[in-house]
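Kindly review these tokens for lecture notes.

. . .
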Amino acid sequence: MKIMSIIGARPQFIKCAPVSKEIRKNNKEIIVHTGQHYDKTMSNLFFNELKIPKPDYNLGVGSGSHGYQTGKMLIKIEKVLFKEKPDFVLVYGDTNTTLVGALATVKLHIPIGHIESGLRSFDKKMPEEINRIVSDHISNILFAPTENAVINLNKEGIKNGVFQVGDVMYDALVRNIKIAEGKLKILSKFKIEPKQYFLATIHRPSNTDNKKNLKNILSAFSKIEETIIFPIHPRTVKFIKNHNLKDKIGKNVIITEPLGYLDFITLEKNAKKIFTDSGGVQKEAYFLKIPCITLRENTEWIETVKDGWNILVGSDKSKIIDACINFNPTGKQNNYFGKGEASKKIRKIIEDYLRKN
């Protein structure tokens, strides 16, 4: 059976790695990389570290407005689908690549599986929320990571083809954390010791595009009496420059270019706390039992908040500083995300579906 995986952004590379390994046990896989993340550090390095096979197609779409990026992807993905005629297509997560991959596929009457179905922040101002909803409603098989994701789908009338399989990012972490433990040289590079620094990531449009929000976050960081390691997203670099906010970056903040997966999870595991607006980083912090301070007003990963390991502070300067000092969770964590076997379950479900159809 021929299964096509359509990916294009850093979180999707991480999710694809364990799934691709499983799929190739019994099937032919075609990997289509849209090029949504085209920077070498954001793309090639992840393929090499995670041992993802080289993409069969790299569409080179690059950055641009939502309309431009979506339109360009749609044309190019459709051409690949016509040429390859896959039996099944997999899309991942909530990016423009996810939406377009699903949309191009459904119009050609090819069955689709959406990995990470059922997540909802209930904030339609987020482009990711629109991408999730549309992809879920046109997919044939919905691979939900948690029980709450299944409940969200049921509330929207989606009950057929829904499977709670666990979280593939947990699969990836389980497979790679021991390798990462041997890469402590990243700590030496920044002259830091375990649990003696904070880690930060910012890339959401609600924070980067909004000058006030980005200014508040950077100002809060500068007031914190802790070293902050800040691997900076190209989007964030652009808007710090556009908003003239370079002078708001404190001397305690160490800015570095985006890091590879192994170096990044090493920094996560050894951080005192993590600041982020990323969904994936919220989960990884939870998996590693690192307190997470989320720079958003909402989250699709409510399980991490429910267990008390994640706190939502938005871009409120005083809340960010207060969480830095006073947010110190120690409570029990529940097994919401599976046992690291989501990828195996996904492969078996797809194979059963194709045999029956």
